[in-house]
Amino acid sequence: MAITKLLIANRGEIALRIIRSARVLGISTVAVHSAADSLAAHVIAADQAYLIGPAEAAQSYLDLERILEAAKASGADAIHPGYGFLAERPEFADAVAAAGLTFVGPDAAVMAALGDKVRARRIAIEAGVPVVPGLDTADIAAARKFGAEIGFPIIIKAAAGGGGRGMRVVQSAGELASALEAASREAKAAFGDGRVFVEKYLARPRHIEIQILGDSRGTLIALGERECSIQRRHQKIIEESPAPRLSGELHRQMIDAALTLARAVNYRNAGTVEFLVDGDRFYFLEVNARLQVEHPVTELCFGRDLVADQIRIAAGEAVDEAGPMRGWAIECRVNAEDVSHDFRPATGSVVQLQLPAGPGVRVDTHLAAGADISPYYDSLIAKIICYGQHREEARTRMAAALTEFSLLGVHHTAAFLHDIVTSEAFTRADLSTGFIQENFSERHEDDDRLRHALIAAAMVAQGNLGVSAKTERPQGTITSAAHDSEARSPWFGLGDFELWSRR
User: Fold this and answer.
1) What is the pLDDT of residues 130-178, one digit of tens each?
2) Are 238 and 298 part of one and the same domain?
3) Residues with catalytic roles
4) Phi/psi of residue 348, each to 5°?
5) CA-CA distance, 128 to 139, in Å (whole number)?
6) Residues 347 and 463 in one domain
7) With bands split at pLDDT 50, 70 and 90, how would you rate the model's confidence at 459?
8) Same structural domain for residues 348 and 316?
9) Does the pLDDT value for residue 501 go beyond 60?
């Protein structure tokens, strides 16, 4: 079942990433977009583009029916969900199949089984994969008894979601009732499902995941591991492959456990089995039944295109065997956030953008000068990935790349990431999920803010900074009629400075 036209049900850098792989495979592409993304890079890059709703994600990128309508109107025969939005919604995969289209991802039944963390725990236990001691229910009496037996602190987690939402660390029995209520309420708001469960809290674990690929013929492979321990608010900001200071035996056991779990559910397409590592022991955490944000580090170490792998598998082709793993790769996620104000999401327009380059440096981004960063979507704006023959070469390249990265107009985290990769703790690979709290508990104002403001002011004075009121779209890139563009605001916020340019 050859795929000839692929609709990408996503936006931003991942939509652009998928378009590029499809183009190499000779597959036409269809973008969908909200009104806020009418001039976005993925819209212009695709062969066709369809407006599916207003800026709010619930009325556009999360609107299953509008996306299917766009697929029908465009003549697409397959849909790639990317990550986020509808990527792990079993009902979306089901609806795509019911419409006679190919879903580039796992089967809906597998997504449903693994997307429920309580059910996924049970599957892991039945498969003989170690899990963190815990309870499948959130009964207050049972949770109190569990805490007394296992010892506080314990952790409450949402059964139907992740990303730190619906999660609470409970230090004592007295905190338990209020924490259960708060976690359930947050889980209900975030995922429409208020179920939570309880586990033993691991104070200083590492977060390590295994990339898997499976085809419809029963072949299943693992492509090494990724270290994802550096996180803030339970969300990853730096990943690397391979994981440093991981014994060969522990590596082998985790690979075997990931493949065992995947076989238990007949896993197909790309996915990631995630573990917590505590000393020389590891525990199953969850399965992400989709492509991961950090997939480029695996691509560089194995010399393959994981998006192309996904598309070929969805088309019924066999998965290629895993070749040898070579070198080391590190990825830093640059987010539009104000680090000095507790990583508060930042918005605005990109006044100036300079991306790093050179041997072993890759940047995945959808940004360009003049682009708007809105409050409606995830704060991820760029991924910088650096490759080297060994970890130190990849690390020093990353430090140089983060120094070279320059974005004026919006607060971002590049300077903070530079501080991390040049820190003594990161250099010696002393990693855990508590890395930020242990080494960067206090973060002061970005030292580069004044320098950036002066550079931008000089550009204004020299007449090198300007934004037109309307950007012309290249002819022939859009086949749908509904593409409205709005005049850009002439105002640009930059820290405590206000810079502007008139048309």
Assistant:
1) 999 999 877 899 999 999 999 999 999 998 877 678 899 999 999 999 9
2) yes
3) 290
4) 145, -165
5) 26
6) yes
7) low
8) no
9) no
